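Morning!

As promised:
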Amino acid sequence: MSIKKKLISSLLPILMPVLLGGCVSDAASGAPAVLDTEEETADLISIGFSQLGAESDWRSANTQSMLESFTEEYGYSMIYENGQQKQSYQITALRSFIQQEVDYIALAPVTESGWDGVLQEAKDAGIPVILVDRRVDSDKSLYTCWLGSDFELESRKLCEWLDSYVNAKGMSSSDINIIHIQGTMGSTAQIGRSRGLANSAREKGWNILGQMSGDFTQTKGREVTAAYLKRFLDVNVVYCENDNEAIGAIEAIEAAGKTAGPDIDKGDILVLSFDGTAEGAKELAKEGKIAAIAECNPLHGPKVRALIEAIEAGESVEKFNYVDERIFSSLPEVSEVYVEGVLYPVEDVE
Ligand code: AHR
């Protein structure tokens, strides 16, 4: 892999306030974020990173991990683009990276479908594409590798926790009435977490009263939960596909005069979540208002850098690279869960 001789100066100092302030780059106009400074350099590797948005605490942590891992100190220059949850913006960003002849593209795709054309363009230009977090349904020859979570495994761990908890409470599976707040429809995280719940509900005999997308946001999580609580009076579990939805769901539960908590045998509504990244969600889990969280690890930056270092060294890399993840709860009833013969200890919320 040849190393480009030109540097697009590091955007980190510009982007940190953007990240912290929740602003976005100029993906909508089709123009690159900030590409006004070109100067000769000897040996920096250039990477275009198309992040899908800034919808959640997890996403902010993921963006920060990537930006911190590809600095000049490590030998990289990174061009970062925020796709604002729009695939069209992400495709525009990828085309701009191709035009600038970056050495690598890192893509965190908002949804799985619709990437064939632009990935073919990157391949034709000889630019390796590394998928981060979510996957695409394109032919595997169109990207170099993927790094992220096993979203269905996360779900199976959480569902095994629920099953053990229901048993520990002496309740019957048929008493469990779930509302399911999904993530962004068509995203790998939503597909895996929804499939995990659907299969477990069928196996265990739980009732799913309704399912709707909360788009991985607190606002939508609150709105969808509020609507369902009006429609169904016997809800006792809310399965949220991320921390931010869970925080919103608890706001809706409390606004409806109900209690989010562990005592589902006594009328509480038990809230389940994924990520374990948002400080607010961790606090709620310590209080027992979120009963359990399947971790989704956002710290992809150093691992993506290791993949690129291996490629630069001429080594072959695995096509699919999974990050390690845990399960958290502050409730004492369930200390471990088994999925496919593997034991996962249930850890205290950090
Ligand atoms: O794709 C990972 C998911 O996307 C995280 O669980 C969620 O918080 C984020 O928005």
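The chain has a mean pLDDT of 91.

Hope this helps with the figure draft.
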